[in-house]
Amino acid sequence: MSLTRRPGPSVRTRVPELTEAREVTREDRLATEEPLEIRLVWPGVPARRVWVTMRTPGHDFELAAGWVLHEGLATEVHGIAYCTDDDLSPEQEFNVVTVTLSAPPTHDPGHRHAGSGSSACGVCGKDSVSEALAVPTGTRWVGPLPEPAVVRRLPDLLRAQQPLFDRTGGVHAAGLVTATGEVLVVREDVGRHNAVDKVTGSRMMTGASPSEACLVVSGRAGFELVQKAVTAGVGCLVAVGAPTSLSVELARTGGLALFGFTSERRCVRYC
Fold first, then answer.
1. 189 and 195 in contact (C-beta within 8 Å)?
2. Burial class (CB in 10 A: 0-12, 13-18, 19+), 109
3. Minimal CA–CA distance to 73: which of 103, 33, 44, 95?
4. Is 112 in the same domain as 210?
5. Is 167 inside a domain boundary?
6. Could you give the residue ranges of the DSSP H alpha helices within the chain?
7. DSSP strand E in the chain: where?
8. pLDDT for 93-131, tens place per residue?
9. Tens digit of pLDDT for each residue in 230-264?
10. pTM for the whole thing?
11. Of 34, 28, 32, 35, residue with least CA distance to 14
């Protein structure tokens, strides 16, 4: 009987590299992308599927915990484990996670979360615009925010802690940072929103608050990332790319400082 092999964050492959001068076959690394099913259980209620997302394996429990908080279902979890149902295939063994709550969630996850999401956007499973715009609000950050000189350094600080990107070039990253530029935690994933879930979940699982001065992300400042930042209670979101009109509107409403087009030389503050 063969043992199930837990999927890693990257896989090897051989590819032809084509240049003007020649063709060379070499080894390459691809970022792993596999589905993760999140199930939720609380006293008196059997486990139920609440979300399926495409993610990079690794820090799966953190992803699930962060997702629960960002969805406004709970601020803490009682336990998280891989599902051991007998009807799971070997390929599913490490792709199904059950989150146990010590009390019922703050609202019924219902049908609106029982959908399938891509690695691009966690909001895509919502059933209506009003549901997508309903943002669970965490405790607002009342501490200091980073000075502009610190903000401009943050993408480079994040980039220095992206080993999976170094190997594959195919993942996003998110990091939680203090006002002085101390990097507390960095996580990588093929999905921008998954990377943020993992950061928040990491703090939750160590008993630390997900609320901090700054969340820095490797891509654009889309609505989904602003939504998660507001829910986690961070002070500002710093993005390498651009925000959208809706993300700026949400940041203003949620009291979140929002920076885009951030690089060593400049940054733009939108609110």
1. yes
2. middle
3. 103
4. no
5. yes
6. 60-70, 129-133, 148-159, 163-168, 192-205, 223-232, 245-254
7. 10-18, 23-31, 34-42, 45-55, 79-82, 96-100, 116-117, 172-177, 183-189, 214-217, 236-239, 257-260, 268-269
8. 789 999 999 999 998 886 444 344 555 554 554 444 455
9. 999 999 999 999 999 999 999 998 999 999 999 99
10. 0.89
11. 28
Q: Which residues pair with 67 in a beta bridge?
A: none
Report helix, strand or coil for 243.
Answer: strand
159 by DSSP, 3-state: which?
helix
Question: Residue 73 in contact with residue 106, Cβ under 8 Å?
Answer: yes
> Do residues 177 and 252 both lie within one domain?
yes
Residue 215: inside a domain, yes or no? yes
Find the domain containing 195 and state its range: 148-269
Residues noted as catalytic: 121
Number of domains in the chain: 2
The predicted pLDDT at position 26 comes to: 92
- 8 A C-beta contact, residue 13 and residue 167: no
- How confident is the model at residue 113, as a pLDDT? 41
The answer to whether residue 171 is domain-embedded is yes
The residue ranges of the chain whose pLDDT is under 50 are 1-3, 111-116, 122, 125-129
Query: 243 in a domain, yes or no?
Result: yes
